[in-house]
Amino acid sequence: MLNSEPSVEPLRERRRRELRRRLSDTATRMFVEQGFDAVRVADVARACGVTEKTVFNHFRSKESLVADRWDTQLDALRTRLADTTIAPLDAALEVLSEELDFLVSSARRHGLAEVRRFGELIRSTPALVAHYREARDRLTDALAENLATRSGTTPADPAARITAGAIAGLWNVYAHSLQQHLGTGATARAAKAIRADLARAADTLRGGI
């Protein structure tokens, strides 16, 4: 059997992805160093040598510049939910496991202290807290839509909504676990503890309230 040639990312898409990452990385660094409210989108654009319009072509808001991982998680969740062989709860756990892998990789590249500073930025900035809640609502809606499709009801169905809300609650467990365990000083040990917290929370959901 002949092996198919690996797909090559189009140059335009690669440049777009690289610029998006540069914008996000630059914004994150500036927000952490100077404070979220003290930095304008125009400042980020200037630091990257692009126009403010270019920034908004890649990010729908100032908040999404520093919290772009939410879109990645939502896309990953929807992809997994489309596979009916994967239970919604397991789909959520897989997405969070990948997100934790990303965080561990970031900690190794930039240092655990920098990751902690980023977490503190999120928790101490009202606009970013609101963005977090809005992003979690979008995750909940995606779960409710999938659960409704699987059960033949509608996303407004009480059973679909409460189940979706419970599964989306894993993101709260993840956030609190990050805050609790990242202070241990060892990334690998913290990651192990966070995975254990998520597994325990998931087992609670499987067992019912």
End-to-end distance, in Å?
52 Å
Helix content: over 70%
Number of strands: 0
Coarse structural class: mainly alpha
Q: What is the rounded Rg?
A: 19 Å
Shape: globular
SS strand fraction: under 5%
Topology as a string of helices (H) and strands (E): HHHHHHHHHH
Biggest beta sheet attributes: none
Question: How many helical elements?
Answer: 10
Write a structural description.
There is one protein chain. With 209 residues, the protein is an all-alpha fold. It has helices at 11-34, 41-48, 52-58, 62-66, 69-81, 88-110, 112-124, 126-151, 158-181, 187-207. It starts with 10 loop residues before the first helix and ends with a helix.
Write the layout of secondary structure elements.
Elements lengths: L10 H24 L6 H8 L3 H7 L3 H5 L2 H13 L6 H23 L1 H13 L1 H26 L6 H24 L5 H21 L2
Helix pairs in contact: 1-2, 5-6, 5-8, 6-7, 6-9, 6-10, 8-9, 9-10
Features:
209 residues; mainly alpha; 10 helices
Briefly say what this structure is.
By secondary structure, this protein is mainly alpha-helical.
